[in-house]
Write a structure and sequence with these properties.
globular; nine-stranded mixed beta sheet; alpha/beta; Rossmann fold
Length: about 375
């Protein structure tokens, strides 16, 4: 599989491909610290693999042992076997340094907490306008009908439907979008390899109308932690999230919405619940009534992205343009980004500069004062 050097190094550090049970992969917090350190040192992530002296600095300043990083990076052959295996199954890998990486993750997550993504399908479609549709497994007939209706509308408006694929609201929305010629991103909690070969998925994968996406290794098994953990990725990947039903202050739907509202991943539109406590909590934390959905407003979200926290490379990948074209666009529109400020400091003329020097001399009066 052809993946970037940055993606390979990120994989080796964030997942343990070595046979050593004693060597732990870097935690999200440790990886975040490492990236921050690289930036402050003006180093690329490739320096971790190519500069042994730099590893000594990392151990001294971050407390991450040189031997630990070296052991993780030494598992390159083992990783290559996995990459070959994944490629045969049509699975690709993206890290936050790569061109097609979702722009919403770059905006909403800190750099070190952006997950490595494993997927099947057309990765060029990851940055289209999108709406997440989530809800409980056991849902009412009216909520199921509504989820199908809104998913069909999304297909009509060329808006991607993002789903967890679970029984109930999620699967109803997903099936409706696909049946109506729409695009779906199914965020998979586990077993991406198995999902990718299921007949019901292959049909739409071949038509490039389905993307299977996971933040876990493709052969990861089921766990409640993985199922609950993927909720935030649905909410963060989407430009807006619709909740046709939530009647309990517990469970995946509730937890996902509360985390979204707390972290402000995306706007949440919900149908009034039979449970007043649910309504009060959602409204008090910023959720919006489902009656106020504005499809056009949601479609414009990706047209009005704030580039302030993105790099030229990020913007180029998102806009499918060259970095030169992006710089020209930024300059023309007087827009600044992380590594390309368009507002230049005003030049101070020599006359003004000399005048300021004269004024400073006057303040001291006589030069003898300076000698004391």
């Amino acid at each position: 599989m052809n993946i970037s050097e940055a993606a390979k190094i990120s994989l080796l550090l964030k997942f343990n491909f070595s046979n050593s049970q004693e060597t732990k992969s870097l935690s999200p917090k440790e990886f975040s610290k490492l990236l921050t350190y690289l930036k402050s040192s003006e180093e690329q992530i490739s320096s971790v693999a190519s500069n042994s002296n730099f590893l000594i600095d990392i151990e001294r300043d971050l407390g991450i042992k040189k031997i630990r990083i070296s052991r993780l990076l030494s598992a390159g052959y083992s990783l290559s076997l996995f990459l070959d295996k994944w490629e045969k199954r049509g699975i690709w890998v993206l890290c936050n340094f790569d061109e097609n990486y979702p722009i919403n993750f770059k905006i909403k997550f800190k750099e070190g907490y952006m997950p490595i993504l494993f997927g099947v399908g057309n990765k060029d479609d990851l940055n289209r306008s999108s709406i997440g549709i989530v809800g409980p497994r056991e849902c009412s007939i009216s909520a199921e009908k509504y989820s199908k209706k809104i998913a069909a509308r999304c297909a009509e408006e060329l808006i991607t439907v993002i789903s967890g694929g679970a029984k109930g609201i999620d699967s109803s929305a997903q099936e409706s979008a696909l049946e109506n010629e729409g695009l779906v991103i199914h965020v998979v909690a586990n077993d991406l390899e198995k999902e990718s070969i299921k007949e019901k998925n292959r049909k739409y994968l071949l038509k490039q109308r389905l993307i299977l996406l996971s933040t876990e290794l493709p052969d990861a098994t089921w766990s409640i932690g993985r199922v609950m953990g993927r909720n935030k990725y649905i909410h963060a990947l989407a430009d807006a999230v619709i909740v046709p039903e939530c009647n309990k202050t517990s469970g995946g739907t509730w937890a996902g919405v509360i985390e979204n509202l707390k972290s402000k991943y995306s706007s949440v539109y919900f149908q009034n619940s039979k449970n007043n406590k649910v309504n009060e909590e959602f409204l008090s934390k910023g959720a919006i009534s489902i009656r106020e959905i504005n499809i056009e407003k949601i479609k414009n979200i990706k047209k009005e992205i704030d580039f302030a926290n993105l790099t030229v490379k990020d913007i180029a990948g998102f806009q499918k343009k060259t970095e030169t074209a992006v710089k020209s666009f930024l300059t023309k529109n007087k827009i600044s980004c992380l590594d390309y400020p368009t507002e230049k400091k005003a030049k101070v003329s020599k006359t003004i500069k000399n005048l300021n020097i004269e004024r400073q001399k006057d303040l001291f009066g006589n030069s003898d004062v300076l000698d004391d």
